[in-house]
Amino acid sequence: MSTPPVRAVVFDLDGTLVQTRLASWEVFEPISRRHGLGVDTPGQYFGLFRGNVFTSIRSLCSTDEQARAATADFLAALRSSYSPPLVPGMQAVVRRLASECTLAVMSSNAMEVLRRVLVDNDLAYCFAHVFGGDVAPDKRAALRTFLADAGSGFGRRCSADYDEGGEAARPDPATTVLVTDTAGDVRDAREVGVRVVGVTWGMHTAAELTEAGAEFVALWPQEVLSYLLGDDAAREPADACAVPSHRVPGSEPGDDCGCGCSGGAACPGPADGTGTATSAAPAGNPAGAAGGSAEAAGGSAEAAGGSAEAAGGSAEAPGARRRRRRREAAALVPASPAPSPGPHPGTAVTGRDPLLDAVRRICG
Predict the structure, then answer these.
(1) % of residues, the chain, pLDDT over 90
(2) Distances (CA, A) of 126 to 2, 240, 273
(3) How many C-beta atoms lie closer than 10 Å to residue 316's C-beta?
(4) Are 119 and 294 in contact (CB under 8 A)?
């Protein structure tokens, strides 16, 4: 019997979409010491994810009060200091799948962290549903909620609106796939009846994921596409889910760049021609539609993670250090070249790129 087509893909966050081993251990290690949990090595910490991590933390505590305090401190530390980088290649994988399937995120992490990560990486509007650990700590319950929702078949195609003007078949367990890096998630999904694809770049090995019940384990992000879409993985999406170019000031809808274009695609820069033109943003770019910069979505990088100096320490916190390095790296990306000052023959001198003026006249 052939496998039914995939209608919905649910991604784990930590260790699947983002690199988590170092970043999450740095957050958890002080919590373990403070509450006497006895988790002294990264290997012991990774072992907590063989089941539900909150259940695992509870098992380390002698009282409910200790468990509540440790869990609350862990979530608070994640909200303030956790800012891991995206797994290389996963942005393209998510955007390609968003053009074909309804996407969701299911994570033990806090909603604030999920929002920060997805907005900062231009993925916020690829996902129709997000289940954070502070909203749905039991991933089995989160999966059942997703499957029971009459509207769960409607997705987002890298823009703010949900699918409209048609009917979407509700995903069922046979057409829903969880993509995860932990054996605990695999077992939770299989208990609900959902299919599972494992990934090897997170917490657990291919053997552990297969033993837990994963039907396939990817060695590279691109294998997720190949396995889920088959030959269709090579087909270009027909919507706005192409991977965006580097975001630059003035390229977001609503930006006031001084040229009167209201920002967004093909903004040519200041009307006087003295500024540098911005690169065109793809239609439906969630960087702008999702609420703009990281500052608008969840506070600035400093406000989200804070520096150790602001907390009273003298050394820069690991989360703040990683965010600072990514900002510095982004600043090195050159802006798009300014338009040629000389007009093409037969065009009016407007101080803007003549080709863009022509496009505006045609699209009117």
Answers:
(1) 44
(2) 28, 10, 35
(3) 14
(4) yes
